[in-house]
Amino acid sequence: MNSLHAGCGNSSRTGSGQSRHSRTPRLRLRRLVPADEADLIALDSDPDVMRHVGSPTGVKSPEETAERVKRRVPPSTGSER
Questions:
Q1: Could you tell me if residue 53 is inside a domain?
Q2: Which of 6, 35, 38, 70 has the least C-beta neighbours within 10 A?
Q3: Terminal C-alpha separation, the chain
Q4: Is 2 among the domain residues?
């Protein structure tokens, strides 16, 4: 069993057995969707956040984040969020 799911609450699975999201009493983990773009731009623009995350670290421009979302987040199927 994946350590992410070992004893940590609910997990929704697709027909192929892959996890779509995982929940604990305080946290829900799921794949990013295109609708997350505005939230990711806000995080990537915050110096307090980006001091601790990112590769390379440092504030990202909204355009840079939007381009990264387009490259890495699969197109929406309309059933997310």
A1: yes
A2: 6
A3: 25
A4: no
What distance in Å separates the CA atoms of residue 81 and residue 15, rounded to the nearest whole number? 19
The total domain count for the chain is: 1
Residue 22 lies in a domain: no
pTM higher than the cut 0.85:
no
Contact 65, 54 (CB under 8 A): no
Q: Is residue 57 part of a domain?
A: yes
Q: Which pLDDT tens digit goes with each residue over 1-59?
A: 344 444 445 655 555 555 567 999 999 999 999 999 999 999 999 999 888 887 777 89
What does the alpha-carbon distance between residue 38 and residue 7 come to, in Å, rounded to a whole number? 32
